[in-house]
Amino acid sequence: MTLPTSDSITFLLNDEPHSVGGLPPTLSLLRYLREHLNLTGTKEGCAEGDCGACTVVVGEKHGDTLALKTHNACIAYLPTLHGKAVYTVEYLTRNGSAHPAQQAMVDCHGSQCGFCTPGFVMSLWQHYEAHIDNSGTSRAQLANDLSGNLCRCTGYRPILDAGEKMFTLPRVPFDYSGARTKLNALAQVATRFEDAEGRYFAPDSLAALLQLRRRLPDSTLLAGGTDIGLWTNKLFRSLGTIIYTRNVPELHALTVDENHVSIGAAVSLTDAYNTVCADYPQLTELRDRFASLPIRNAGTLGGNVANGSPIGDSAPWLIALGAEVVLSNVDGERTIPLASLYTGYMQQSRQDDEILRAIIIPRPRKDQQFHCWKISKRYDSDISAVCGAFSLIVESGQISEARVAFGGMAATTARATDCEADLLGQAWTRNTVDSAMQALDRDYTPMSDMRASKSYRKTIARNLLYRFYLLTAKDSGYDEEQSLRAFTLPEIAV
Length: 494
Prior knowledge:
Elements: E1 8-13, E2 16-21, H1 29-36, E3 55-62, E4 65-72, E5 85-87, H2 100-107, H3 117-130, H4 139-145, H5 157-165, H6 176-184, E6 192-195, E7 198-201, H7 206-215, E8 220-222, H8 228-233, E9 242-244, E10 254-256, E11 260-264, H9 269-279, H10 284-289, H11 293-298, H12 301-307, H13 314-320, E12 324-329, E13 332-337, E14 342-344, E15 347-348, E16 355-362, E17 368-375, E18 386-395, E19 398-407, E20 414-415, H14 417-423, H15 430-443, H16 454-472, H17 480-486
Parallel strand pairs: 1-5, 7-9, 8-9
Antiparallel strand pairs: 1-2, 3-4, 3-5, 6-7, 10-11, 11-16, 12-13, 12-16, 14-15, 17-18, 18-19, 19-20
């Protein structure tokens, strides 16, 4: 199989066509902007997608629409921007005057040392465009959209004030139609780049992807790069041959039928979680705490599952809901329970030439009780110490199905089989949950590390199961809203 080859990458940069060639496939967008173009408004803080100092806005066509989303330039490989639009903080002052997002930061004293300010401004601009008439937004939504931008100086209040004030300033429109026209005029997206440091393939069909994977089983599959980007930035690893999956239309399929939601492996975490939260609103908090908005925009649910990290936030609730994964190669497809995909630490039952094509999630059923919680040291932008997910079907007063899964408790995300056995066939009562809580000690032998001790993890696992009982059992007498109000501090005027 021969794929079209190009020696250059073409994209819109600050609304103007831009081509570049002869650079390594793993060169980050951040390094290219700063070191090759002297566009130094975009800063490097962490080089791992955590701090947001490098935030840019990426525009991508979806049919006749153009979606603008924040991304971390530090972990975005330059070839992945081929055929897209990139906007940096320099774009906002192209007409010589400050954009409302910038002016509001000045007016509200939202900047002190200034290092993080360009990243905040880009996140504010994306929020500004997403809520063009200031509808559907709130201070809480603004805080969620800024969760990927860290500041050591201001305490965030003046930045949030600026996010509210920018809507009161004279409107500065973005020319969506003009940007789409310019993107349409770009050269056809090439599917192969070569450099002395490696090869980069971007197949544009599932068949081409599967053929490449069969021929190059040791290649690195790249989707959002939210984890792989750290391999080069922090571990200085060579990726060899890269196969980029985000140009495969079949992997973007997202369908909902009467019984299932099917999410293609290239669907972003943002779109995947928004779809699933419509069925399971209990996942809303986890969605908002999953890394940050730029990470969710770049990353994919398929990538998070295929990565197989024992502390990944998606696998516990997917396993608790009974999700399945569709694995594909040139010989065909097979569908297996997600719970059987992981066979050991960073080991899977997936064959070398197989790719994860889709994740299939059952829709809510009658009498189903479900909840999921993430426990971490920091509320936003942190990795779980423990993530627990619980699903019960209670029929005629008895538990007919029990699925309990934890991340952070073992070498893989795994079901709590002894706990589930204690629950099955029992009434959902205090005695039942007490016994099931003790069974968790037989299910897991967690380790102590920088995120939590072994004993803490065991205690948290038991307490999360007990919290699930309090929220769902009819005889618990627990009112969570009343309980939370008892521990809520009064607002302090600022």
